[in-house]
Design a protein that fits this description.
It comes from Acinetobacter gerneri DSM 14967 = CIP 107464 = MTCC 9824. InterPro entries: Aldo-Keto_reductase, NAD(P)_OxRdtase_dom_sf, NADP_OxRdtase_dom. The chain is an alpha/beta fold. 39% of the residues lie in helices and 14% in strands. The chain has one domain: NADP-dependent oxidoreductase domain (TIM Barrel, Alpha-Beta Barrel). It contains 12 helices and 11 strands.
Length: 333
């Protein structure tokens, strides 16, 4: 494994982190025995940057991670998030649409204690605001998060899906170490809206869904997705968008094969090539996919390779939106 520095903290994180959401949330049923084996394999591979959140399975994902952290806490740089709260009448915790955002100082105090307890740890290495609450001044949210640093409950602060303007405001109150945002070959808006701000402020970008939720791997069949899989709600997996994306994934996979790589490896290598301040967190529940992804850090792409990838993507422009309208309403505040 290779390592990159988190923001201006000096912390050395694996160039690929591990997104743990799918082990407990959004992608249908999973096997916790398999999940734990995958987490332990991540440590064997030197993947020391793990990402979770309190909303993943309504806390279940944090509890899952605690089972491995109990013996290996000093080997893991642990990130979790607060902000989404489930409605009290919610009967289906797999459905993130039955939640709301709370960035109030009052809730932050409760949320961090809940996460520390579930994770069975004394400190969270990186604590994100999962979404920005438009009804709470960001100064109040960041002020309350900064208090957690002073209290020793949190080491570094992060924001997820925040606008560039909000990132600047937040960073002026307390240093922001990382900004998490969806970023992949199919989701590149950040290059025009966020990159300059993030680099100027010395912040790391932590892309989630770097494989476009599996789409770019050319191994996904929408018809085989479980009914509870939230990808069924997304425009990219529907109608003409899906037809376009199947063709795109096939063409990209063929180019990857010509480079003696899988599509997943090439897509991750592409992200890593976009800047040393970028640390993607591909998620998986399977050891074989974890091992496959980890090899991406050893792939060097030439200028010609990068140009060829851009040409392939440009041939199939109708990829569709990454979220539906209701989900978009929560981002970029």
């Amino acid at each position: 494994m290779k390592y990159r520095t988190l923001g201006q903290t000096g912390e050395q994180l694996s160039s690929l982190g591990l997104g743990c959401m799918g082990m407990s949330f959004a992608y249908g049923n999973s096997d916790n025995t398999q999940n734990i084996a995958t987490l332990e394999k991540a440590l064997d591979l030197g993947i020391n940057f793990w990402d979770t959140a309190d909303m993943y399975g309504n806390g279940a994902n944090e509890v899952l991670l605690s089972k491995v952290l109990a013996k290996h806490r000093n080997k893991v740089f642990l990130a979790t998030k607060f902000g989404f709260r489930y409605k009290e009448d919610n009967s289906n915790p797999q459905n993130s649409l039955e939640s709301y955002i709370d960035g109030s100082p009052k809730w932050i105090k409760v949320a961090v204690e809940n996460s520390l307890k579930r994770l069975n740890t004394d400190v969270i290495d990186l604590y994100y605001a999962h979404r920005i609450d438009p009804n709470i001044p960001v100064e109040d949210t960041i002020g309350a998060m900064a208090d957690l640093v002073k209290q020793g409950k949190v080491r570094y602060l992060g924001l997820s899906e925040a606008s560039a303007e909000t990132i600047r405001k937040a960073h002026a109150i307390h240093p922001i170490a990382a900004v998490q945002h969806e970023y992949s070959l199919l989701t590149r808006e950040l290059e025009n809206t966020h990159f300059q701000t993030i680099r100027e402020l010395g912040i790391s970008l932590v892309p989630y869904s770097p494989l476009s939720r599996g789409l770019i791997t050319n191994k996904l069949d929408v018809g085989n997705l479980e009914e509870s899989d939230f990808r069924r709600q997304l425009p990219r997996y529907q109608g003409d968008n899906w037809k376009n994306n199947q063709n795109l994934a096939q063409a990209f996979s063929e180019f990857a094969q010509s480079k003696n790589a899988t599509a997943a490896q090439l897509a991750l290598a592409w992200i890593l090539a976009q800047g040393e301040n970028i640390i993607p967190i591909p998620g998986t529940r399977k050891i074989e996919r974890l091992v496959e992804n980890a090899e991406a850090v050893n792939i060097d792409l030439s200028t010609a390779d990068l140009a060829e990838i851009d040409m392939i993507i440009a041939k199939y422009p109708n990829v569709g939106a990454r979220y539906n309208a209701q989900q978009f309403a929560a981002v970029n505040h």
